[in-house]
Amino acid sequence: MKLKKYLPLHFYLSFIKPKKMAYIINDSCIACGSCIDECPVEAITEGDIYKIDPETCTDCGSCADACPTEAIHPA
Ligand code: SF4
Ligand code: SF4
């Protein structure tokens, strides 16, 4: 029996992970808390400046729509 020398291309491509996209919060944040209630996956944490966990964020954009200072935008 003859063995294949190379595996199919999709086997190698399966190791390449696409870049994780997420929304981020910039210095315009005034810590009003409006965004945290809008996030369906609880990706936003409170603080002097709120932060979004890029691993949890699903890029839905709901928080950006709720922000009064336009501090939230795609990374
Ligand atoms: S974009 Fe959506 S999932 Fe990501 S932090 Fe904002 S509300 Fe949450
Ligand atoms: S809605 Fe905007 S200003 Fe308010 S806490 Fe979230 S990021 Fe900060």
Question: What is the element layout, followed by pairings?
Answer:
Layout lengths: L8 H5 L9 E3 L8 H5 L5 E2 L5 E2 L9 H5 L5 E3 L1
Antiparallel strand pairs: 1-4, 2-3
The protein binds iron/sulfur cluster (SF4) (2 copies).
Walk me through the structure.
With 75 residues, the protein is α+β, with helices and mostly antiparallel strands. The protein has one domain: Alpha-Beta Plaits, CATH 3.30.70. The chain has helices at residues 9-13, 34-38, 62-66, and strands at residues 23-25, 44-45, 51-52, 72-74. It is rod-shaped. The longest helix is centred in the N-terminal third of the chain and has 5 residues, at 9-13. The strands form two sheets. The chain has a two-stranded antiparallel sheet. Strands 2-3 form a two-stranded antiparallel ribbon. 20% of the residues lie in helices and 13% in strands. The protein starts with 8 loop residues before the first helix and ends with a strand. The protein contains three helices and four strands; from the N terminus they run H-E-H-E-E-H-E. Bound molecules: iron/sulfur cluster (2 copies). One iron/sulfur cluster binds next to helix 3.
Key words describing this protein structure:
single chain; 75 residues; Alpha-Beta Plaits; two-stranded antiparallel ribbon; 4 strands; 20% helix
Q: Give the helices and strands as they follow along the chain.
A: HEHEEHE
**CATH fold name:** Alpha-Beta Plaits
Q: Output mean pLDDT.
A: 88
Any low-confidence stretches, pLDDT <50, length ≥5?
Answer: none
Radius of gyration, CA atoms, in whole angstroms: 19 Å
User: Strands of the largest sheet, in order across it?
Assistant: 1-4
Structural class: alpha+beta
